[in-house]
Amino acid sequence: TKVIVVNGPNLGRLGVRQPDVYGRQDLETLRTQCSQWGAALGLKVEVRQTDDEAEMVRWMHQAVDEQTPVVMNPAAFTHYSYALADAAHMVGDAGLPLIEVHISNPSARDEFRKRSVISPVATGTITGMGFYGYKLALDAIAHLIG
Ligand code: DQA
């Protein structure tokens, strides 16, 4: 089974962006780790990143059309993108799992990070576990589709 791992704005800067919060490992490392974690579960994982809300929305439409489960770190879109929330809702409506992941624990940070418009339409949410959260999300997907 193919799974897409989609990452929102500024996550292409992992490793250099607030390493105290997001760690010192970069997106390429996350890519390698997700592929390995997925392979061990029999999942073919494709890791994507975009700073573009429209592209992220299109990826959700594509997931529905191709029946692909989704791991999503919506980054700052988490807190305000109703367009992405509506698109994520469609993934759920299609019977596909969508696991929301945050590297940090947003509820322990700024006030504006305490609300997620994605959580209500996600199958579940994993926060505060660093890159390991993506592994937990892939485990959850393997469990949910297994
Ligand atoms: C994040 C948390 C968001 O609040 C922030 O805007 C990000 C990353 C996380 O992975 O911890 O860009 O989603």
UniProtKB/TrEMBL annotation:
Its EC number is 4.2.1.10. Belongs to the type-II 3-dehydroquinase family. Gene3D superfamilies: Dehydroquinase, class II. The active site is at Y22, H102. CDD domains: DHQase_II (cd00466). The lineage of its organism: Bacteria, Bacillati, Actinomycetota, Actinomycetes, Bifidobacteriales. The gene is aroQ. Pathway: Metabolic intermediate biosynthesis; chorismate biosynthesis; chorismate from D-erythrose 4-phosphate and phosphoenolpyruvate: step 3/7. It is an enzyme of class 4 (lyase). InterPro entries: DHquinase_II, DHquinase_II_CS, DHquinase_II_sf. It comes from Bifidobacterium bifidum ATCC 29521 = JCM 1255 = DSM 20456. This is 3-dehydroquinate dehydratase.
